[in-house]
Amino acid sequence: MNIANRISSSLRDPRYYQIAVLSTLLIYGITVLDFGIHWQNALLIVATALVVQFAATIVTQLPRFDPLSPLITSLSLTLLLRTDMAKIAVLAASMAIGSKFLLRFRGKHIFNPANFALVALMLVSDHAWVSSGQWGSAAIGAFALACMGFLVLTRAKRAETTIAFILLYAALLFGRAIWLEDPFSIPLHQLQNGALLIFAFFMISDPKTTPNTGLGRVLYAGLVAGVAYTIQFIYYQPNGPILALIMCAPVVPMIDTLLHGRMYRWEQAADHKIGQIKGVF
Amino acid sequence: MRIIATVVAAALTVAIATTAQAFCGFYVARADTSLFNKASQVVLVRDENRTVITMANDFEGEVQDFAVVIPVPTLIEREQINVGDRAIVEHLDAYTAPRLVEYHDPDPCMRYERFKSSQDSAFPQAAMQESEIKAARSMGVTIEASYTVGEYDILILSAKESGGLIRWLQENDYKLPRGAAKVVDSYLKQDMHFFVAKVNLEEQSKLGYQYLRPLQVAYESNKFMLPIRLGTLNAKGKQELYVYALTRSGRVETTNYRTVKLPSDTEVPEFVQSEFSDFYRAMFDKQVQTENERAVFLEYAWDMGWCDPCAADPLSTQELRKLGVFWVGGAAGRSSVAPGQAQNVFVTRLHVRYDSEHFPEDLVFQETGDRQNYQGRYVIRHPWKGEASCDISSYQAEVRKRQEREAQTLANLTGWDVDDIRRKIPFPDDDSLPPKDPWWKRIWS
Among B221, B256, B371, whose Cβ lies nearest the Cβ of A133? Predict the structure, then answer.
């Protein structure tokens, strides 16, 4: 009974949903969409991320090895990073997990690990890029992705970052269309972008690298949306949201200082349940 | 330096010959852009924020009726516009075109015969009046400059709002499609500039060209895009566009539409050789439908230094420079690299069929680091037709199986009826095949 309870309560950890959704997307991407992911690179990224996490767990003397976070990071990375070199894939996974342990401030890591590795590699190498258009923009596909992502987030109970980002980014795109007197088919087309949805549902939503309070997270999402828009539509550079997230990440400690809040722990929902059960026993 | 370059090139050739034995068919046909009506071709040379665009049009009316209004991301000066050479664009088209290669089955009775191949890679080898300027100004349009380049009169315009520009264009007898004002307005707000090119008949007769040469513009801008929205307004139905991107690092793809590789390296029946154009058109139509008419198709991605099999020789350094590839060649004396040598140029050929419904937004591109070669390549394999000096019934059974497979593939690729396809395939005579046993005889034997 005790074991069954523990299993069922640990399954409440929203990361299981995230892993399931990301894996489904990855398999769909490789088998149906053929969007240029080498499955060998996908395997390398996942394996490297787990190995680096394991090594770092030992070096930093963490109480236990947690495979869930590196799995999510490596799946996000696999979905967004395109490379023709296996060593870039390995480097990406190492940098992503390494950044979690090395780039820290007041007990939180500063950058979303996958975001950090993507941007760092895109800046230093011609062999790393993001194919944001490869998901296609069929409305139905976007809707399905959004629903799945939303499910993940409602379990994570931190959906405000994603919702605020999407609403504000969409408002900017529609505002631009109104100003330019463009048909609304243009901003709608810009929003039906798989990479944008993955970013909104799986990257910016990372509770470990967003502010600790709800208001802070909404402010932060607004800032990222504004910077992303500026990069994409004023400086005409691709990958606006991904670049915006890394540029805005250092603002998180400032927001946390101004608005005090509790730090997020992935296990807290599960722990809470376990606590109640313990009380019964 | 020269010697080292030659050795490197020779080493490259050897490496290719060793690793690419499977490609030793020879080129027999290509599907160039003339297959499709209303096709326009654009060459985009891009490195960092520098772009050189070459626009070749297929205008077939009276040249005095020809005029184009072209949006460009920056204000441009006289030296940034040039008139290019149509033959070079045609060469680039031929070099990157999807190709059909053929193989001949060896004599099935010869056990150690080596496959020989040959490769056919031979490619036949205005000045404005002051009153007009004032009239323009009164409409809020500034004619920044006007000059004659080759057979074109070029006017560079800047305007604060579309109304004036549209009125000016209409008063100067430019026919504008419905809805143009809104699109022009949108471009103006995005800091785009316009230039107008029309044919100067006097200059054209002096130069003696029977056709319109492509216009070229060089500019610096972060925008790596192609404005297609004006084009969708006046088009009757869908338009075909070919984009040839020449870059330093790798393949180019669209960031706001899906870029899809066309099916390639497939074996098709022998008769496709005489119907290659029909085959390619049908296959392209089918793929466009499969992608819900919303994809950009990759037809070729290759290092400009070589090809295998070659539909045409790679472009020479001189040709590349004329297209605006500013990082090759350099000083005049050093610009004589022969085809086949590494040139640090990667070519991507994209083919898109678009209309405003399925392509509401301009095409936005990005350069990737992907240098993996890709080509549209279709294979026909001719069965052995010589005198047989042994029992070839099992070989013929193999051929029959292969032909059936090819028929299915072709039906899948084109949507053609598989029975119609089968009728065109010369299957080996049934008499020569081993007699077929009833199926039950094979159960327990």
Answer: B256
Half-sphere exposure of B326 (CA within 13 A, CB side): 14
Contact A133 B182 (CB under 8 A): no
Q: How many whole angstroms separate alpha carbon B314 and alpha carbon B303?
A: 9
pTM of the model: 0.81
Judged by CB atoms closer than 8 Å, whether chains meet at B360 and A126 is answered as no
Check if the beta carbon of residue A53 is closer than 8 Å to that of residue A97. Answer: yes
pLDDT tens sequence across A112-127: 899 999 999 998 888 8
For residue A30, the surrounding DSSP H or E stretch is none
Q: How far apart are CA A6 and CA A274, in angstroms?
A: 7
User: Which of B46, B182, B249, B256 has the highest number of chain A CBs within 10 A, making it the mutation to test binding with A?
Assistant: B256
Q: Are strands B39-47 and B239-247 parallel, antiparallel or unpaired?
A: parallel
B346: chain A residues, CB-CB within 8 Å: none
Q: What is the ipTM of this complex?
A: 0.82
DSSP B45-75: EEETTEEEEEEE----S-GGG-EEEEEESS-
Do B291 and A182 lie within an 8 Å CB cutoff? no
Average pLDDT over residues B377-405: 85
Which element (helix H / strand E) includes A102?
Answer: helix A86-102
Query: Which of A38, A85, A185 to mutate against chain B (most B CBs within 10 Å)?
Result: A185
On whether the CB atoms of residues B360 and B334 are closer than 8 A, the answer is: no
Task: Dump the DSSP string for B111-134.
Answer: SSPPP-----------PPPHHHHH
Work out the angle between the directed axes of helices A240-248 and A113-124 (0-180°, nearest 10). 110
Q: What is the pLDDT of residue B114?
A: 37
Cβ separation of A179 and B189 shorter than 8 Å? Answer: yes
| Angstrom distances, CA of residue A71 to CA of A19, A21, A77, A162 | 7, 12, 10, 21
Residue B269 and residue B191: Cα distance in Å, rounded?
A: 53
Tokens of B14: 């050897």
Could you count the other beta carbons within 10 Å of the beta carbon of residue A91? 21
Contact B301, B347 (CB under 8 A): yes
CB atoms within 10 A of CB B45: 24
Sign (positive/negative) of CA torsion B429, B435, B440, B442? negative
Mean pLDDT to the nearest integer, B389-410: 87
For the purposes of burial, counting CB atoms within 10 Å of the CB of A179, is it exposed (0-12), middle (13-18) or buried (19 or more)?
exposed
* pLDDT at residue number A19: 83
CA angle B178, B180, B186 (to 5 degrees): 145
Mind telling me how many Å the CA of B60 is from chain A's nearest CA?
A: 32
Count, residues in chain B: 445
Q: Does B372 touch chain A (CB under 8 A)?
A: yes
- How far is the C-alpha of B223 from the C-alpha of A191, rounded, in Å? 20
**Confidence at residue A36, expressed as pLDDT on a 0 to 100 scale:** 73
Half-sphere CA count of B32, side-chain side, radius 13 A? 12
End-to-end CA distance of chain A: 11
Q: Which of B255, B260, B289, B373 to mutate to test the interface with A (most CBs of A within 10 A)?
A: B255
Q: How many CB pairs under 8 A join A and B?
A: 79
Q: Does B373 touch chain A (CB under 8 A)?
A: no
- Cβ-based contacts of B185 with chain A (< 8 Å): 180-181
Decide if pLDDT at B235 tops 80. no
- Asked if residue B33 lies in contact with residue B40, where contact means CB atoms within 8 angstroms, the answer is no
Nearest CA in chain A to B365: A238
Beta-carbon contacts of B282 under 8 Å, excluding residues fewer than 6 positions away, are B413, B414, B415, B416
- How many Cα atoms occupy the beta-carbon half-sphere of A248 within 13 Å? 25
Longest Cα pair distance anywhere in chain A, in angstroms? 66
